[in-house]
Amino acid sequence: MFGEEYDVIVVGGGHAGAEAAAAAGNMGSKTLLVTMNLQTIGQMSCNPAMGGIAKGQIVREIDALGGMSGIITDKSAIQFKMLNKSKGPAMWSPRAQSDRMRFAEEWRLALENIPNVDFYQEMVSGLLIENGKAVGVKSSLGIDIRAKSVILTNGTFLNGLIHIGEKQFGGGRAGEKAATGITEQLLQLGFESGRMKTGTPPRVDGRSLDYSVMTPQPGDAIPEKFSYLRTPVLTTQRDCFLTHTSELVHDVLREGFDRSPMFNGRIKSVGPRYCPSIEDKINRFADKNSHQIFVEPEGWDTVEVYVNGFSTSLPEDIQFKALRTVKGFEKVKFFRPGYAIEYDYFPPTQLKHTLETKLVDNLYFAGQINGTTGYEEAASQGLMAGINAHLKVNEKEDFILKRDEAYIGVLIDDLITKGTEEPYRMFTSRAEYRTLLRQDNADLRLTPKGYEIGLAKKERLIRMEEKELKSDSFVNFFRETSVKPEEVNPILDSVNSALVKQSDKMFKVFSRPKVTMDHMLQLEAVSGFVEENNLDREVLEQTEIQVKYSGYIAKEKNNADKLLRLENVKIPANFDYSDLKSLSYEAREKLNAIQPVTIAQAARVSGVNPSDISVLLVYLGR
Ligand code: FAD
């Protein structure tokens, strides 16, 4: 390793770093993963779960492209749920409870299985830069390692500062030291940095809890999984449990407020709005006398339990005393107290769509360093940075996903166009084309692209093509086949839908509200078609969505196509907006800073109005 030159060096083995190294390595780049502790590759810093609303869609997209997070999650899951199943399919979101230790172990094994990936355990304290290009890293022991590109995925480690009550100490996570040197060097190079904050709840001993007074939260009766490949489906699952805080719990917590770093000004940075600490919830929603606590096992075999909903940086004695007043926690024993952490991030408007920095060539940032929060957000950025670093080293075209193609496209475009001043997490509402960006069709949207760039394997493409072919032919079957009133009326009657008087196309009947695939399967012709063509659950689900939501899907596709025209109007690189006096002052300033590459991206920059876009279109001769 010493003296060798790599194609790609990935700094950090968290979710972003692991995906970045896997992508670059699998695509054929000679890759080095340098991380502070090889034992913590793929470590889940906070909750032992992957997916959830909008995040689950991201994991499926990572998988569809040929990334690893979905496979790792399937191999280490202890419970699976499809959230929002009562809503339309655009909202269905897979979520798995993971075995924390196995998740990390599976990541390590997966990376070790990639021959192109080398490992080195040390802290990177700086970058090697020559002529405005990143050419390697410098370790804290003073070792220089050269590479054609560098991806920084430092997570919460850059000048990390941990807070528990009045105590504060340097650290990247509890029990791990903070990383120094990189921020300082990047600032000297002209980068801008900021501080953010996040927090985590205490972990407790499951043997000390009384589950009999809590409500079990089982997984789905028929669990699904994340990967489109043949990964294991759960045959048994572990339950989570639900309990609640009470006025008494809140009163005990309030006793510690004067010692809280959140309230006495010691924590100055902004935390994740949608993952507030328990003290924040009590403070902000003073009228609520109870909050939910989800009691989540940390794995198959361990007794350690994650107390979801009780994130806190109050003094540990207060955390403990308050937790003992929660129903079922009267005899609780602590494994680890909760804490908050402040860390450096780099406003992501300093990046291009490839996640390469605008200031230094061949330097990429991915994950929490870009101001995001969450494993899925981090992993997807790592994947894209790994792909793009590999492509650039090989002088190939950039790989960019558009907003109508993937949540990953929405995420990166939001980050680099709008920036973020608080930890950014994905929501379905951030995507304007969420009917197109469903969890069920990530393979159809992205696997051909993943295959084309050389990441997704042939097996993946074949599976996807087979699914597409079969669901298309099943949809056609519904379009072409008629059904008689005497066959279909019992079904329509059972869902209180108006009866038909003459034969009608099955597609029309199936499109009616409340008529489901299960109903249609009661028709002999339909079940016969399924049997004859050997259609599996995935194909049935895909067909049902294609039939029932065809109108919405077509409308959204149409809207996306219209906008695509603006996506195709390119703005010259390094365009100087200062002289375009018909633009508002704010638009000139923001556009100069962001340097959008297309008119559509310019329209998404905050502070740029439709009138500014008209000016630009006229100027560009459109
Ligand atoms: P990380 O997972 O932090 O990984 C960074 C990696 O880089 C580590 O392996 C580290 O050892 C390595 N590293 C760092 N600097 C160097 C260096 N200089 N040299 C070598 N290696 C280095 N997310 C949520 O969605 N909700 C939450 O409520 C939430 N709470 C959190 C609470 C805490 C206390 C923490 C620490 C994180 C929390 N997160 C939460 C965030 C979640 O853990 C991250 O979003 C996710 O792990 C980010 O992935 P990453 O790969 O960017 O960084």
UniProtKB/TrEMBL annotation:
Lineage top rank: taxon: Bacteria
Show the InterPro entries listed in the entry: FAD/NAD-bd_sf (IPR036188), GIDA_C_N (IPR049312), MnmG (IPR004416), MnmG-rel (IPR002218), MnmG-rel_CS (IPR020595), MnmG_C (IPR026904), MnmG_C_subdom (IPR047001), MnmG_C_subdom_sf (IPR044920)
PROSITE patterns tied to this protein: GIDA_1, GIDA_2
Question: What are the required cofactors?
Answer: FAD
Q: Which UniProt keywords apply?
A: Cytoplasm, FAD, Flavoprotein, NAD, tRNA processing
On whether Cytoplasm is a keyword of this UniProt record, the answer is yes
* Residues binding FAD: G12, G13, G14, H15, A16, G17
Q: Which Pfam families match?
A: GIDA, GIDA_C_1st, SAM_GIDA_C
Q: Which residues bind NAD(+)?
A: 271-285
Instruction: Give the location in the cell.
Output: Cytoplasm
Annotated tRNA uridine 5-carboxymethylaminomethyl modification enzyme C-terminal subdomain domain residues: 547-618
Q: Which NCBIfam families match?
A: mnmG_gidA
What is stated as this protein's family in its record? Answer: Belongs to the MnmG family.
Q: How does this protein assemble?
A: Homodimer. Heterotetramer of two MnmE and two MnmG subunits.
What the protein does?
NAD-binding protein involved in the addition of a carboxymethylaminomethyl (cmnm) group at the wobble position (U34) of certain tRNAs, forming tRNA-cmnm(5)s(2)U34.
The molecule here is called tRNA uridine 5-carboxymethylaminomethyl modification enzyme MnmG
Question: What organism does this protein naturally occur in?
Answer: Zobellia barbeyronii
- Tell me the organism's taxonomic lineage: Bacteria, Pseudomonadati, Bacteroidota, Flavobacteriia, Flavobacteriales
Name of the gene this protein is made from:
mnmG
